[in-house]
């Protein structure tokens, strides 16, 4: 089976569907016209052999790079040359657990709640 992602006018993935193998070579026509879904469809690969990664809802299709790019987790993060989102500040190297705080643009230590003290 082949997988195709529908992208909107901004190249954002809005859904991913499975197409029978016999229609893989022209999935765009099959999905848009033959079964009447309309839209723009780009083939994606479940095992990431084409277009960098398996397309997920919210991902962006970059036509120049011919690849799907995961949605940024936060507006301040930058995409590396390896297509990995990187925070503007490195994750702390101690043994504690941190969460990103976009407003402060910093890692904040995760506070655990001890249920036994309630």
Describe this structure in words.
The structure is a single chain. The model has no long low-confidence stretch (mean pLDDT 93). This protein has one helix at residues 27-34, and strands at residues 2-7, 13-19, 40-44, 60-62, 67-69, 78-79, 85-86, 98-101, 106-109. The chain is mainly β and 118 residues long. The chain is built from one helix and nine strands; from the N terminus they run ββαβββββββ. It has two domains: 2-69, no CATH class; 78-117, no CATH class. The radius of gyration is 20 Å and the shape is elongated. A three-stranded antiparallel β-sheet has the order 2-1-3, with helices on one face. The protein has a two-stranded antiparallel ribbon with strand order 4-5.
Number of strands: 9
Q: Please state the overall shape, judged from the principal axes of the Cα atoms.
A: elongated
**What oligomeric assembly is this protein in?**
single chain
Tell me the fraction of residues in β-strands, as a range: 25-35%
What strand line-up does the widest sheet have?
2-1-3
Q: What share of residues is helical?
A: under 10%
Q: Which structural class should the secondary elements be placed in?
A: mainly beta
Average pLDDT, all residues: 93
Biggest sheet features: 3 strands, antiparallel
String of helices and strands: EEHEEEEEEE
> Low-confidence segments, ≥5 residues, pLDDT <50?
none
- The N- and C-terminal alpha carbons lie at a distance of 53 Å
Gyration radius (Cα, Å) is 20 Å
How many structurally independent domains? 2
């Amino acid at each position: 089976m082949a997988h195709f992602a529908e992208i909107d006018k901004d190249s954002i993935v809005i859904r991913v569907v499975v197409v029978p193998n016999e229609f893989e070579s022209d999935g765009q026509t099959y999905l848009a016209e033959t079964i009447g879904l309309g839209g723009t469809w780009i083939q994606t690969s479940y095992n990431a052999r084409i277009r960098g990664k398996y397309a997920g809802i919210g991902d962006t299709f970059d036509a120049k790079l011919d690849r799907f790019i995961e949605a940024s987790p936060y507006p301040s993060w930058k995409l590396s040359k390896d297509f990995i989102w990187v925070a503007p500040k490195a994750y702390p190297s101690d043994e504690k657990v941190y969460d990103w705080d976009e407003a402060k643009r910093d890692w904040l230590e995760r506070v655990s709640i001890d249920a036994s003290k309630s």
